[in-house]
Design brief:
It is built from 10 helices and 27 strands. By secondary structure, the protein is an alpha+beta fold. A 6-stranded mixed β-sheet has the order 18-27-26-25-21-24. β22 and β23 form a beta hairpin. The longest helix is centred in the N-terminal third of the chain and has 17 residues.
């Protein structure tokens, strides 16, 4: 069935719009998300997207034409569909709307309180042609913040998408009329912007606009396929510009740059948080310089999921989504451990690693904290009094966890020998299933890769896993003086069903004593 698309109200003060350019012509196929046209408002030029699929059957406003909000802009429907009745109905509705726009509104405003000088009322905009109300998903400015023209004020959820809403006025955000998670009708007072210190009460009295807010504590998350702002980037703004190589630019700026062969990486953005907007591209192209669009070949590699990868995905997903994880981070002094290892390795035919020290220390600490060396069942908690330490080993296809059994009873050289043997046979795919079963606690160490700290997903049925980072040389405070020291960060992930926060913290305190004083491992 055909759908009527009306001229949207794309800003809080927009009363009419001009079609700057049509990107579709009558008869063209239209997909949801396609750019239909560029609409010039009283404040900006914005891309207007289609929220319906079909064919463009009718254009109501030609390029360069100006019409009031709610005027018939276009009709989208099935190819060949009869739209005569819809055109007649739209014409009648337009005439009725014009007759209704008379002086009573002016009389109402004349009886309102006087608006303080310089204060501007920002109302809930109608960001799509069918929008009747909007939800404030997130405020990016707070009361008292300075607002510049072009800053992103908030993210607004409509009936069709979540869009960034820009400020078209400069000043101070004096008042927020609709809180995050609240829903209000189009034209409700969204915010007040004006001079710092302006009389907010007087300004609110002058609006005479009931807020009519429906509380919605948990606004629904927008569908990824429909999160498409009109004139800004899809990703919500962050506190800092993107640092992953992505160029932050509005869709309109990207389109102009593509047409003119401009490399956006060479454009300095003047929008919010360095975002490139239309004027930045136009100003650059007006210099007369020649730009060449990047040329390359898109290539991908598809790899079938191995059985190991499928098993890892299944088990870790089950762990992450069934066990309520929480994390405890610590930083240990490693000066004594470094000296201890260096001296220990002077023994003939002896070579131990820091990971061997950690495994032995974990096993010794678990002796005193069986509640961490545990497993959760729906009707019981099983605490183990044997220390079987799983050691995460990276292999070509993923990750395996061989088990060092009765690790608390093994010497450091025996632990080192077992781990090296497991690692080699894991890479050769020669580990037996029995060697990868029965762990009661797991250690994952990425310190050898220079990773300072990280968190791991619990290797069920264990109740906890320890993530070990690299040893870093850094300034530390000893006896009130700053000296050069060595520290290592560790993060304990716990299943809160089994291990409470205080319990995990006490285990880490015991572990600290062993690692920072490794001679105690020999006692």
């Amino acid at each position: 069935m055909a759908e009527i698309i009306n001229m949207p109200r794309l800003s809080d003060t927009m009363e009419e719009g001009t079609v700057a350019k049509w990107f579709k012509k009558v008869g063209d196929a239209v997909k949801e998300g396609d750019i239909l046209a560029e609409i010039e408002t009283d404040k900006a030029t914005m891309e207007f997207e289609a929220f319906h699929e079909g064919h463009l059957l009718h254009i109501g406003i030609e390029e360069g034409g100006t019409a009031p909000v709610d005027t018939l802009l276009a009709i989208i429907g099935e190819k060949g569909e009869n739209i005569g009745d819809m055109l007649q109905s739209a014409s009648t509705t337009s005439a009725t709307t014009q007759e209704a726009s008379t002086s009573p509104a002016e009389e109402t405003s004349s009886t309102s309180a006087e608006m303080p000088e310089g204060v501007v009322v920002i109302t809930m905009p109608r960001l799509s042609d069918t929008m009747e109300e909007g939800t404030v998903a997130q405020w990016l400015k707070k009361v008292g913040d300075t607002v510049k023209e072009g800053d992103i004020l908030a993210e607004i959820e409509t009936d069709k998408a979540t869009m960034e809403f820009e400020a078209f006025h400069a000043g101070t955000l004096l008042h927020v009329g609709i809180q995050e998670g609240e829903t209000a009708a189009v034209d409700s007072v969204l915010a007040l912007i004006g001079p710092k210190g302006a009389d907010v009460k007087a300004a609110l009295a002058a609006t005479e606009t009931p807020k009519a807010v429906e509380t919605s504590p948990t606004p629904p998350a927008p569908s990824p396929e429909k999160t498409k702002p009109l004139a800004t980037n899809t990703p919500p703004p962050t506190s800092q510009p993107a640092t992953n190589g992505r160029v932050m630019a509005s869709p309109l700026a990207k389109k102009i740059a593509q047409e003119k062969g401009i490399n956006l990486a060479a454009v300095a953005g003047t929008g919010e948080q360095g975002r490139i907007i239309k004027r930045d591209v136009e100003n650059l192209s007006s210099t007369g310089a020649t730009y060449t669009a990047p040329v390359g070949v898109e290539r991908v590699t598809e790899l079938a999921n191995s059985q190991m990868r499928k098993t890892i995905a299944k088990r870790l997903a089950a762990s992450k989504f069934s066990a309520p994880h929480y994390y405890l981070g610590v930083e240990y002094n490693m000066d004594n451990a470094i000296a201890f290892r260096a001296q220990y390795n002077t023994l003939p035919d002896t070579k131990i690693s820091f990971n061997d020290i950690v495994i032995k220390a974990v096993a010794m600490a678990l002796r005193q904290h069986p509640e961490v060396n545990a497993q959760w069942f729906d009707d019981k908690i099983v605490q183990h009094h044997h220390m079987h330490i799983g050691v995460a080993v990276a292999v070509t296809d993923g990750l395996v966890v061989p088990v060092v059994k009765f690790a608390d009873s093994l010497s450091l050289p025996h632990i080192g020998s077992a781990v090296r043997d497991f690692a080699q046979r894991a890479r050769d795919k020669k580990l037996t299933p029995a060697e990868m079963e029965g762990s009661t606690f797991t250690v994952s160490n990425l310190g050898m890769f220079g990773i300072q700290e990280f968190t791991s997903i619990i290797n069920q049925p264990n109740a906890a896993i320890l993530s070990v980072g690299s040893i870093e040389e850094k300034p530390v405070v000893k006896e009130g003086k700053i000296v050069v020291g060595h520290t290592m960060k560790l993060t304990l992930a716990c299943d809160h069903r089994t291990v409470d926060g205080a319990t995990g913290a006490q285990f880490l305190q015991t572990l600290r004593n062993y690692i920072e004083n490794p001679v105690t491992l020999l006692v």
